[in-house]
Every structure is written in C-alpha cells, then in structure tokens.
Write a structure and sequence with these properties.
By secondary structure, the protein is of the alpha/beta class. The chain is built from 17 helices and 17 strands.
Length: about 575
C-alpha cells in the first residue's frame, strides 16, 4: 500500500527570515509573523485555566498545613516527566512530604481507579494530585473523596460527558476552559499550574516567611521538553517555546542527571540534542519502563540528583527498551501475517482491529502505529486482559477523530465497551472479549462514515525540490536550527528525481546510496533505512522523498539525505 508525494501549496511566501528556503517552509506551516518564530520565554502567555483559582487555593492550603501530598501520574513519558516535575516543583516551594505513585498498567490499568485508591489508602495522603490523567476517573476521584482525601485533577485529555467530583480540575480541554492551551501535554499543564502557584505564593509572602529561595520554574523546562515531544502533541508556538527552551538547557548540561544519562545510553551527543533525538531515542527508553514493568523506574531516573545512580537506572531503561523492541518486532511480524490472511479473503477493512492471544499490552500502541503507517488507515491493536476482557490501543489517520469514533460505536452498542478515553489521534479502550467480533464490524462501519477510498492512501507532504547548491552542510544546519520540529510543525521533507550512482547494503535492512540530482553534476550521500534495493547497476532514475540532515561520524560533519520514500521516476511505481 504505497504512499503518494504531494507538494505543499504555498500561494504567497511571506518574508519572515531572509532565507527564501526557510520562508517557504515556514509559510507552508501557516507561520504568519516573525513573532511566531521567537522562542524566548517572554513570548509565553500564562494560560488562564478554568478552575485555576480553586487549584491555587488548594495547593497553598496543602503547603501551609504541611499536608502529605501524593502525585499520581500516568505510565508514559508525558506522565513520568509531569510526575517528576510536580514532585520537584512542590518540594522547591516548601512541601515537606511529597510522594508519587504510578498505577501498574497490568494490575490497575490507566488513571485513578478505585482499586488504585484502595492501594494508596495506607499511605494516608491528604492531597492527591493527578498528572496526565484523572479527567475520566469519576469513580476513582469519588473513592478518594470518601477516604477524606482532597483531590486536584490536572490533565489534558478530552473529558467525557461528566466531570469527576474533584476539589479542583485543571484541563484545558474541559468545558468552559477558554485558556487556548488545548495543545499542552500533561507535563505542560502541571508546569503552568506550578508557575501560577509560585506567583500566588510570592504575592502572599510565602517564600520570605518560610525563608525559602523563590524557585525558577524555567529550570524545569528540560522535563517539559522531554514530555511534550515524547507525547506527540501539536507543536504550536507555545509548545515550541517550551521545547526549544528545554532543549537549550539540556544542550548546555543544565538538566536533571537522568536526562543526561538517557542521552548517553541512547548514543546522543547532548550538546547537539534536538527534538528528533527526544522523539526517537530518549522518549522510547523512558516509555519502555511503563510498557514492560513499572514507570516508577523512569520517574526515579528523572528524580535522581546523583549522576551515578541516574546512569545505572538509565542503563536499566535501555535494557527494557531493547526488550520492548524485540517484542514489538515479533508482534509486527504476526500482525503482517494477519493482514496477509485478511487480504486473501477480501479487501482490508477501512478500520482495522487486530487481536492476538499472545500480544503484550505494553506494546500495543507501538504496534498500532506501525500497522497504521503500513496500511494508511486507523488501527486498533488488542490483547487479552484477563479471561473476559480485551484491551486495545488505537492510532488514527488524518480526517478521523479516533476517540469520537469509539464513542460513536459505544453509543450504538451500549455496554459492550467497558471504558475508553483519548483524543483525536490516539485512544485506548477495554471491552468484553465476547463483544470483539461485533466491535470490529461496528468500528469498520464507523470509519467508513468518515473516510473514503481516497483517504486510505498515505500522503507525504513535500516542501518541494532543493536546488543543487542547497545540498550542503550549512543548509542542513540551518534546517536543524529552524525547529523544533514535531507534530503539527513537521520537519521539512523534500522530493526530486535522482540518478543512482552507487548503492551499498548496510547491515541487514539498510542501504547507502550515492545520488545525482536530475539536471546537476553534483553527487550527494543518502541513507535508506529498512529498505533494500533489488537491482544492480545500471539503476533506474528514482523519485525520492527525503530529509536533509547533519550527519556526524568520527568527529566529521556532513550533509546527507535520509530517504523516506522511493518510486520509479517514469511511472511513479513505488517499491
């Protein structure tokens, strides 16, 4: 199932930077003023969250009365960084007793469940703060309140029709919130809550009265950058400021030891770390703890102030990530075999639901994303959850709001889905095992209501062609510095026709190419990962979609292309 290359339409390039190439790229991403490219902290406007006054009063009371505070996070990188930030931030503001817990995904599932509350009861928390979860935890919040615990929910996920009966709720996606901060990750939400709390305490004379230094919240932006990029939230201007400021601190070595340790075990040069490194190297290692064991391992890494201890925990995370990759590769092979069987019987469903008795719950999200990339359609990967239930992770494509689609199925077939939650591009759900065949048909029917055949072809949006003089290290460095790139603000992708001058296999599944752009006399180096070309010389001309990156090898820097897509230039036949 091949993708097609579509060049972005840029009807009028705005003069934003003085570089025609960057101006074209930024204009295509709907940047309308140079201010949107300014990444100084002064450009941030603190969000006026709905419920912020109640939250600040509750937190100030907890500090004043020396309450025991328990932070309940989520078991992904956003939840881990947000939890570490909450613990570090509250301690910096004078909290005497701050603890954290993350639910075991295999025992308690997602969020603040009643069973988790019961397990937390012996710790006798007086204030419970959720980070990156809680907006759908109606029963869990009620259970905590029955124990006499005050509850502050901080989340960024879409709420259901009813909100939990917490003492205060901060969620930019809840009804009535007009902060405009809908794209914040969970770690971004708790960051701005803590920033508002610092201002509130400062105005009340708290720091002077307690003889405490006024904490600089910008010092926590390394955690915010890591969680924001890893959670794949849209990088609007505010999020780009948070990420860029966090990256600058990481590059300068002004970050928690755990992030430095993660960069080392991932093989990254910390001084050149960028958002791509976070998304594909640091984030997966942190996420591996929550997928296979216990995200407390990852949070411990981020909370440690001892470099040696952080290094040891990061090495453990690296080992878990290798294990996660092995499990994911096996599951992907099994999923591909299942797809082949489906295609033998008939065309693939528009909405794919894949289930296997032997699949690991912790890797379902990765599997769904990989199958989606191959099939260009929404995917739900499911695994057993005990004898009577199955648990799934969903990933969507442009044009389909996955959480709303699951909600529509739930409305048509009430009682079959036990619980679900998420947002436009990703969601999770639990349903009765016996309902799986019905759900598979209903989900496919719901997807067909929104997507047509033309929507099921993957589209690669290109920023056009590079000129012969632009295949250079200075241009590659300028593109890297022009970010941070990420979800909703994609890294530049180019396309063009090339002659293959040389081809060499690298490892098992990669190849190195020497290419000549059509109509030029230069040659450029390229890498095609997970792709083996089937021909020997002479090679046909190819249309290639590629990224221009800075390649660092043995202390030498050069420009090279990273191949994202290949097709024959004459008839656009992909391979």
């Amino acid at each position: 199932m091949s993708a097609i290359i579509v060049r972005r339409e840029v009807p009028g390039v705005l003069p934003l930077t003085g570089s025609p190439l960057l101006d074209r790229i930024y204009t295509a991403r709907r940047v309308r003023s140079a201010r949107e490219l300014d990444h100084r902290l002064e450009c941030l406007t603190p969000p006026a969250f709905e419920g912020l006054g109640e939250a600040l009063a509750l937190l100030a009371e907890a500090l004043e009365r020396r309450w025991r505070i328990l932070v309940v996070g989520d078991f992904d990188a956003d939840g881990a960084t947000g939890t570490a930030l909450a613990v570090r931030g509250l301690r910096a503001m004078g909290a005497r007793d701050v603890r954290f817990r993350v639910p075991d995904r295999f025992r308690f599932g997602y969020g603040l469940s009643p069973d988790l509350v019961a397990a937390l009861a012996p710790e006798r928390p007086q204030l419970l703060i959720t980070v990156d979860n809680g907006i759908s935890s109606l029963q869990g919040v009620a259970a905590a309140r029955e124990l006499g615990c005050r509850v502050l929910v901080t989340d960024h996920h879409l709420p259901g029709p009813e909100l939990p009966a917490a003492d205060a709720i901060i969620d930019p996606n809840q009804p009535g919130d007009e902060s405009g901060a809908n794209n914040l990750a969970g770690v971004g939400v708790i960051f701005f809550v803590l920033a508002a709390l610092r201002r509130h305490l400062d105005d009340a004379g708290w720091f002077a009265r307690e003889n405490l230094p006024r904490p600089n919240l910008a010092g926590f932006l390394d955690l915010v950058a890591l969680g924001t990029v890893a959670d794949v939230v849209p990088l609007d201007h505010g999020n780009r400021v948070l990420v860029e400021q966090g990256l600058r601190r990481i590059r300068a070595g002004r970050c928690v030891p755990g992030i430095s340790a993660l960069a080392r075990v991932a093989g990254c040069r910390q001084a050149q770390l960028d958002a791509t490194d976070i998304g594909f190297r640091l984030g997966p290692r942190l996420n591996a703890a929550g997928r296979l064991e216990d995200m407390s391992i990852g949070i411990d890494c981020l909370l440690s102030d001892d470099p040696a201890e952080a290094e040891a925990v990061a090495a453990r995370l690296d080992g878990l990530n290798r294990e996660r990759r092995a499990i994911g590769e096996r599951m992907q092979t099994e999923a591909e075999q299942a797809l082949e069987i489906l295609q033998l019987d008939a065309a693939l469903p528009y909405g794919l639901c894949l289930f296997d008795e032997g699949w690991h719950q912790g890797v379902l999200g990765i599997l769904a994303a990989r199958v989606r990339e191959r099939t260009h359609r929404p995917v739900i990967a499911l695994a057993p959850d005990g004898e009577d239930l199955v648990k799934g992770s969903a990933r969507s494509v442009p044009g389909l709001h996955i959480r709303d689609s699951i909600a529509a199925v739930d409305g048509r077939h009430p009682g079959r889905i036990r619980k679900f939650g998420g947002h436009a591009s990703a969601a999770g759900l639990t349903l009765a095992r016996e309902a799986l065949p019905l759900f598979q048909d209903a989900f496919d029917a719901e997807v067909r209501r929104h997507l047509g055949p033309e929507d099921l072809r993957g589209v690669l949006y290109s920023d056009g062609e590079l000129g012969a003089g632009e295949f250079s290290l200075p241009v590659a460095e300028a593109l890297r510095a022009a970010g941070p790139w990420g979800q909703g603000f994609p890294e530049p992708l180019f396309d063009g026709v090339f002659q293959v001058l040389a081809h060499r296999p690298v490892g098992r599944n990669h190849c190195q190419l020497t290419l000549r752009p059509q109509g030029s006399d230069i040659s450029v180096q390229a890498m095609a990962f997970n792709r083996v070309l089937p021909w020997s010389a002479p090679w046909p001309e190819l249309r290639i979609a590629y990224r221009l990156e800075v390649n660092e090898f043995r202390n030498r820097r050069s420009a090279r292309l990273i191949v994202e897509h290949l097709e024959l230039a004459d008839d656009r036949h992909p391979y």
